[in-house]
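Reviewer comment 2.1 asked that we show a complete input and output for one of the modelled complexes. We chose the adenosine-5'-diphosphate case, as it is the one discussed in the main text.
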Amino acid sequence: MAKYVYFFGKGKAEGKAEMKNLLGGKGANLAEMTNIGLPVPAGFTISTEVCTYYYANKKSFPKSLQSEVKKAIAKIEKAMGAKVGDVKNPLLVSIRSGARASMPGMMDTILNLGLNDEVAEGLVKKTNNRRFVYDSYRRFVQMYGDVVLGLKPVHKDEIDPFEVIIEAKKKSKGVHLDTELTADDLKDLVSLFKNAIKEKTGSDFPQDPMTQLWGAVGAVFGSWSNDRAIAYRKMYDIPESWGTAVNIQSMVFGNMGDDSGTGVAFTRDAATGENVFYGEYLMNAQGEDVVAGTRTPLPMSQLAKDNPTIYAQLDKIRKKLEKHYREMNDIEFTIQQGKLYMLQCRSGKRTAFAAIRIAVDMVEEKLITDKEALMRIDPEQLNQLLRPVFDLKEKESAVKSGRLLTKGLNAGPGAATGRVVFNAPDAEAWKKRGELVILTRIETSPEDIKGMDAAEGILTARGGMTSHAALVARQMGKVCVAGCAALDIDYSTHTMKVKGKLIKEGDWISLDGTTGEVIEGKVPTKPSEVLRVLVDKSLAPKEAPIYQEYAKIMAWADKYRRLKIRTNADQPDQALNAVAFGAEGIGLCRTEHMFFGEGKIGPMREMILADTVQERKAALAKLLPLQRSDFEGIFEAMNGRPVTIRTIDPPLHEFVPHEEAAQRQLAAQIGITYEKVHHRVESLHEFNPMLGFRGCRLGIIFPEITEMQSRAIFEAAANIQAKGIKVEPEVMIPLVGNVKELEHQEKIVRRVADEVMKEKGVKFRYLVGTMIEIPRGAITADEIATVAEFFSFGTNDLTQTTLGVSRDDAARFLVPYVEKEIYPKDPFEVLDRGGVGALMKIAVEKGRSVRSDLKVGICGEHGGDPSSVEFCHEINQNYVSCSPFRVPIARLAAARAALKDAPPSKTKKAAKKSKKK
Ligand code: ADP
Ligand code: MG
Ligand code: MG
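Response of the prediction step:
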């Protein structure tokens, strides 16, 4: 018979860390912690299979579950020496959700389950602590009301109905903190809460503990498909089919008095990665208090002073966990009357800065290998290291002039400037219309996820370094300043008061997430440390610790990757930046941007408006020296690295003016009539320019254009070679679908190359190849490769032509398509492996079948997307090419792809090692 329930307690567990799929992350780690001897309150996990069953069977449970749960409860009761519902000696439990991947705060936990009016009175007798009992009871009714019975705020400016009752109570008693309420106040709250529930739902709050328990279990499974869980899964690619587990665990109490408390910590600093114990706790509080940010918690360093014994125990556990998991962990603990309990551990979310520092440090501490370090850094995270920071001088002067509004916790490093909005839907809406926003909240909750994603930065009035806002911001790589108690936020008027100033919705503010400063107005930014070292060269590497870590990671990545990394650049300065980031060549130098440069658009337009070949050649002759010097600049900057230059690609109408005034001006410039200009522009009009007169079609109808461009390339090559710099031009013909097109163009290119070599009396190496960007080109790759010496996948166009979708017109249906999961991702961002990828695979195989040394690359936008890079590795391409700032990302992605499919001889040892632990 299927087993659905896994017990843990008294030093032994039926589960273990490797069983995450079945037990969820939380359940698997509770089991693991139990097994390695950490103090974990007894409990059991209902497996994710039940969740799957629940949704497959009209939200019902498997038959055998009831009896399994009963048995497991009996086991907890035995372990804890208390009984569910026993008035004299009641066992209370928590109901905790836990999916495979951690979904912070996505599904709600219910604490203190098992309390009812009678049990509460019994527990008062047992503990002699009335305040504790009614504090626990009111929390239970509140959580149960919220999670199971659906008493939640409905409108965005509303607050929690239970919080309204609590606030009213506090006001009537003239107190500020929950802890100042008396036992009687709390008991009063319980009945007020129950009334609210009765009013809202029409039924009484359930008194029977087992009814409570099954209600809660159902709610956890139900919450797997609530809106915010779905939104979170979308954002982080968590499949719906995974399901969640439910953990039922005996309660330990952090709210039993001043010798009790609860905390959340990281085994290293989650913002910077420094190897220090990093966390927060609150005395006389229950779990959620620290995370929810209703009271501002104390730092771990305070615990070291106030309770050195507990601190020492925790520090020992911190080290034990890091050794055991070989990973930075995020832990939750509770102290009950001076005794420590562990309630959760998992691999800790961290900023990109921390991810990199921790990975590098752990390699140095010999906890992990350099390969493992690479696998632990999400390539996209490198983006964060390249992002601007505030210019210190500018910030200082802003502070001096009195613009410092307040200082909070530096929860998410980086610099952000934007306009204040006070709720998540507004953040989304403003962002949609192109505004930069700072989402400002008293505290954030999982409902705010989408708004947080839309914001440049997040600012909260309450909560600590481990508050929801801080956790999520770090994970998203957002700038975040949390816990600014000085902010007096009023949701209803969309304003806040701080330091006697009134900040309204739409006002500009700046957040320094590295220092916690909140500054009125805009503060200018400057390049990040990595950029200052590599690009500006204004900082010495030895003065740049973050750069040094970056450099180590990049060096390891280069050691393991097989793909070469090139860049898409058409100007020498772009090319130089890319080289600084590690580019090994140019994979796509577009020539059309050059025609817009200084003095070039004039002759370009003359060429387009020309009536005869003679006129056209005259105009092209003016362009030749200009384009040649562009290429010289590029070759010089690339200093011997290969450069792929694409001949003219866009339709000609993109180069001519479309408004009458501009056409008249152009006519006057060239000395022809306006009517002629107008007529010519009209005649260039196309219904489907994307499928029109562009690409190699231009060069075939106007061979003199290809001729001029080839000449510019080869003369530049000869000139630069004469300076003693190696050159390796690769001439790339776009939009080829038929080998005859390529043959036509290749003849011109080779003839001009011969001419230039003869004229200049030199020899240089060059290649002629093509872009594969229409399906016919891919499918006839074995014909095309008889002429082409290289292929480069133009996956922007290849995606358009394969899917029959125009990227410029797709927004209206592509977004809904992704929402409906017709395509898992925007195919213009992440390569569509099934369609476009399949064509690429065919092209590589067919191409190499006739030319075994065919060089293959990619130059579409996908070249900088980690998943697409992985695919390029898998189909044995030689290189990927991406924009300069994505080069580091591509290097890491390429290394990770190589490590994933390392040949068996290399992985055997590693596999053995990982089995052992
Ligand atoms: P999340 O998945 O949102 O982190 P948890 O299941 O970890 O939710 O529970 C939230 C809080 O409740 C935690 O901080 C934890 O400390 C506390 N908690 C959960 N179970 C227990 C328990 N059995 N005893 C005491 N506190 C608990
Ligand atoms: Mg937790
Ligand atoms: Mg193209």
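Residues 904-917 have pLDDT under 50 and may be disordered. We note this here for comparison with the apo prediction described in Section 3.2.
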